[in-house]
From TrEMBL:
It comes from Pseudorhizobium endolithicum. It comes from the Bacteria. Residues 22-273 form the EAL domain. This is Bifunctional diguanylate cyclase/phosphodiesterase.
Length: 278
């Protein structure tokens, strides 16, 4: 009985500590937005055939005053719960537009930048107006959307927004493909420019015939419908060689570069890092 009680106290103490820490992170996060602690890092994507720098993904980081740089898995869920995920997406997009202007000023050629768009933001009825206000240049930005966005209700708002986004000259990409249960043909009917194959499918291809066959057929179907494919999680040159052989169009992963802060990315781009080391 005493044991049980200890255990109970142990649990409540733990739970309490967790609640306090969660509450604290939530408060910190809201303050962090006010204090401009959210920064945008960049990861390059290379053309599988030419090795040229062809795309860039913008990835949010929290430059936390005490904890240092934090990856999205530490705060995105909390941001969603606090209803500020869309705010964060907007911050990232505005940063990207400013950074693109800086690259242009420096005379550095940087291709289209993809930003991740949360479900909440795609459902926002004011999304299009806020995008128009930014006067985004055509074909310079693309939106990465996870497949689950297309599964829920409010399909009409989502479909309407997608249509308008495309009219603004912003590409649509399906992110993390292969992790959900969506039919590929259904998704491709949305006419995205690109399909990003999730790293959970890409990473095992060297050793697993199943994943290899799956990746091959995803690439084949996408290609037959005129949709480009991007392999995520290309961790080694062996992965790069194999997805290239399977017909993938773009490669992104640690084999080439990790996500980099603006200064490092710019440095690499400036010093002629327009080609992936083959
Ligand atoms: P994602 O969109 O699938 O982004 C790719 C993730 O894979 C990034 O993680 C990237 O650092 C990581 N990655 C890239 N290459 C490799 C590799 O070779 N191996 C491995 N193991 N990982 C690799 P990150 O930056 O931690 O972002 C995680 C997720 O957070 C993103 O997944 C995206 O869903 C979300 N996210 C990031 N930035 C934003 C944002 O601004 N807004 C929204 N709504 N979501 C974001
Ligand atoms: Mg993404
Ligand atoms: Mg992804
Ligand atoms: Mg992913």
């Amino acid at each position: 009985k005493a044991m049980g009680r200890n255990r109970y106290e142990f649990f409540t103490q733990n739970l309490q500590a967790e609640i306090i820490s969660h509450k604290r992170t939530a408060d910190d996060l809201l303050a962090g937005i006010e204090n401009h602690e959210f920064v945008t890092w960049y990861q390059p994507q290379f053309d599988a055939q030419t090795n040229l720098l062809t795309g860039v993904e913008a990835l949010v980081r929290w430059n936390h005053p005490h904890l240092g740089i934090l990856a999205p898995d530490r705060f995105l869920k909390i941001a969603e719960d606090l209803n500020v995920a869309a705010t964060m997406d907007q911050i990232v997009l505005e940063t990207v537009l400013r950074d693109q202007a800086r690259w242009a000023e420096m005379g550095i050629e940087v291709p289209r930048v993809s930003v991740n768009v949360s479900s909440r933001r795609l459902h926002d009825e004011n999304l299009i107006d806020s995008l128009k206000a930014l006067q985004i240049r055509r074909n310079r930005i693309s939106f990465e959307l996870v497949e689950s966005i297309f599964l829920d209700e409010h399909e009409d708002i989502v479909a309407g927004n997608l249509e308008e986004i495309r009219k603004l000259g912003i590409d649509i990409e399906i992110d993390d493909f292969g992790t959900g249960h969506t039919s590929i043909v259904g998704l491709l009917k949305l006419k995205p420019q690109r399909l990003k194959i999730d790293r959970q499918l890409v990473m095992p291809i060297l050793h697993s015939p199943q994943e290899r066959a799956l990746v091959r057929s995803i690439i084949d179907i996408a290609r037959s419908l005129g949709v480009e494919t991007v392999a995520e999680g290309v961790e080694t040159m062996q992965h790069a060689a194999l997805v290239r052989e399977l017909g993938c169009d773009l490669l992104q992963g640690y084999a080439f570069a990790r996500p980099l802060p603006f200064a490092d990315f710019t440095q690499a781009a400036r010093s002629g890092w327009t080609r992936a080391a083959a």
